[in-house]
């Protein structure tokens, strides 16, 4: 119980720090939200009026308290650059990012895990080398550049995939948003043409995001597997004459599953970051696109909320990873 | 004692020497690693390119010529020209200076900062440790690009602010590493010995602990270089990094974005340059890690 | 149906699925448009400050009167079927049509019109200058604009402005002259600190207006959907629905247009337009707008205070070459502050007398006392061709020793810095309200009070500390002059003076290129209208 309380306390302290940091960044913004609202042609009286309405004429500590109060009420304020509540906007854009990141993680893990296992089993072979080079390329490629190349080749030149955005315009509004995940919604409602179109649009950005995730996942898988394969019980099992496949799959791989889950959870968190640039390139109406648009428009409420929420998701995923790790590894208990 | 003797002597005089010896042994392993050597070649080429950029570039990076805009690659313009008629090859070549400078400056700020915070936290423990690591956690709980975006938005665009912003996001992992290393050695006998002799904490940290942490921090920083290069390019791509007309690769890419179907060459060369640079640092860092950590 | 195959293919291995490109024509009764909707933050006519919002709202909200499509200097009836000016020139009376209805079917009256115009001034957003510069203000607006009966709207003026000028400036195709539904605004008003927002929060996303369309959906940075009003008083719009989709990339818009996925593309850049020009399926309509892109030189800076330095900058711009390259489809090189097409404008040749001349520029700065040049900082927007123009100027300036460093920023920040006078050089744009020389001159040349504490941030002239009593007087004289020939002469004088001595270096008058599929017919496009309902497919 005491342990739990201190854990809770530390989480709360981190959250408070997170909010202080986001607030601090927001305060630093040289962009004046008032100017963003009233435009370039208004007079000074209007300026002061709007500034007062936004509460920006209060002292900084008071503003922070109001900010805290609003956050605790779950009130993220109004996004000045969209005219909507930030919470509504986020509810709207998050599914797009979740859909993209989920498919990316499926691709990343689907290729990365087998690749890592193979690379570990045949350590030093050409396939290990290949896995390593592919992984390093994944780490090293600027995702936004791959996005550009992909669009140029597969969309502009070959016409294999859909262009920027989630759907062709002619398919918009054909599907009622239920989950907000275009593939799921269209499938549930039997709109297979929409599904097909959504698939064409998502596959390229998801593959590019997935590539980076794959690099990370395959590398971690390899090192986990190497760890296991050098354990005495594996050596013993091999000595007993168990087949290579059984040893690898049943024993070694089974033992790294929990570790893999944590790695995949972390990779998923990093995809949110990757989404910022990828979504910009693909005009994907998700969270990253929303963040950069808000940033360029100088929208404090929108930017702070995004940063805060990503921070919270990061903490949550990290805690999850920590928790799983503790359960698994007696040395860290 | 020559350097070589210091690094290969069978009996070491100090823990620091032992560390450096391990490092030297690692270097010898590194030389045998082909991928790492490719990385080293890439990084060295980048450095040479940056140093001799003005001699290599056939044109000035800002030399505009509206009549020659958007020309495809040719013998006169190896990588073509951009939308103001500037030679892309020259810009990529000169851009290497910006990239290298950014990466080095970030490392030069983040490494000492992380090292200091990590060793202090690890050495003193208790409240200092808890407080510093809490701050560290808060910074770590943001993805670095998003945090850097926030900082740059706050500080204003420009290469100097981009460096500060990236450095602010780059120190936490280094601090964490330095703290972990410190924890393993702070109770060592020789540290206690220094303490008993009346060595101040400052002296212990700077003279005994920091040198011990240095090798792993160097590796970590090399590995981070790739990430720094990518983050800087990302900021440039969003218009928040180096300001025009600076030939920053990320910013050059973002120009290419508006010429997707017309002029492919605008985004090709800077993209490849970013890729090679980041790949070079990754290969080298990877090799370094393998060399220093014989387990993997 | 391709479902099962795709369900199966939704595996990791099928990373790139190729089954031939999808081509779907847009529905017959729907006009599909692609645009960059980043800047769109509100549909409330009182608040709109940017191009997209204005363009869309002008299809949702009619105005009292409108410009004649053949001759913009003439005003013709719209919701107001007639009007009259009292003998003393101080009272303007509009007679509204009796058949005006809101989308919900309720009747729109003069009371709605009066309320809309009153709130326009009371809310005081940037737009309110459209009325306040004609003497209306928060305190007097309730008595200045009244509705004695359902179809009569009475406007009291503070001065006997020429009828044509005041109609054109305040009541024709102007956000000030739109009719919002008063009962809806009052019902949905939000009160903050005891002050009502007069329905601003509600109208922001849903402007309930008299007009051909209504906004039925707006997802920020994604899409705006307009649907036809069946009870509209005017000509029935041809398309039942208009979809404006957010496509922020020129290249992407071009491909969508080529493939027929959209009917109209609004954001195309020069290169894509050049490429489309030879495509017979695409028509490009270029419209000269009443707007400018310019470099503002802050005269508070001792170097820029020298008239020779300001004139030198005009010789550092290669107007001709820009016109042939970067400005193609973007604008017409122009150095005079009154745009072509406005009453009183200099003609094209007289309005752009400058040529790139480094020697002359060098001589001018030497004369000003800076033979070796100087250093300057410029702030500019990250958007559009701003960075290219700035780099063009900086590159030529560097050749005569003037070192200009650039700092790009978001528009909101650019405006803030401008309003606070915190810049040396600012590259920025400006749109004039009405096609009359007064519109630009009253803001860019006239400066009622140059003192910092006057805070006249809505005047670009104030922002750069420009003040000339002579120009102020001349502009006022021209505004009240009833003889058109004399007005024109006065405006020409002001333009000549400003073109050489003024603080603004105008680069080009904006062109708005709209590209659409050739099967779209009768699309009415002019500087003040993009009439979605006119397009026939």
Layout of helices and strands, plus pairs?
The complex is a heterotrimer of chains A (333), B (296) and C (537).
Chain A lengths: L1 H27 L4 H6 L5 H10 L6 H13 L13 H36 L4 H15 L2 H15 L24 H7 L3 H38 L2 H8 L4 H39 L4 H11 L2 H29 L5
Helix pairs in contact in A: 1-4, 1-13, 5-6, 5-9, 5-11, 6-9, 7-9, 7-11, 8-9, 9-11, 11-12, 11-13, 12-13
Chain B lengths: L2 H6 L6 H17 L2 H18 L1 H4 L31 H37 L1 H15 L3 H12 L3 H27 L3 H8 L4 H37 L11 H9 L7 H28 L4
Chain C lengths: L2 H7 L20 E6 L15 H7 L7 E3 L7 E3 L2 E6 L5 E6 L13 H14 L5 H4 L8 H4 E5 L2 E5 L6 H9 L10 H6 L3 E2 L2 E2 L3 H6 L7 E7 L3 E6 L12 E6 L3 H9 L5 E2 L4 H7 L5 E16 L9 H8 L4 H6 L6 E3 L24 H10 L7 E7 L4 H14 L3 E7 L1 H9 L5 E7 L5 H8 L15 H4 L5 H12 L3 H18 L2 E14 L6 E3 L2 E3 L6
Parallel strand pairs in C: 1-12, 1-13, 16-17, 16-18
Antiparallel strand pairs in C: 2-3, 4-5, 5-7, 6-7, 8-9, 10-11, 11-12, 13-19, 14-18, 14-19, 15-19, 20-21
Helix pairs in contact in C: 11-13, 18-19
Structure described in brief:
The complex is a heterotrimer of chains A (333), B (296) and C (537). Chain A is mostly helical.
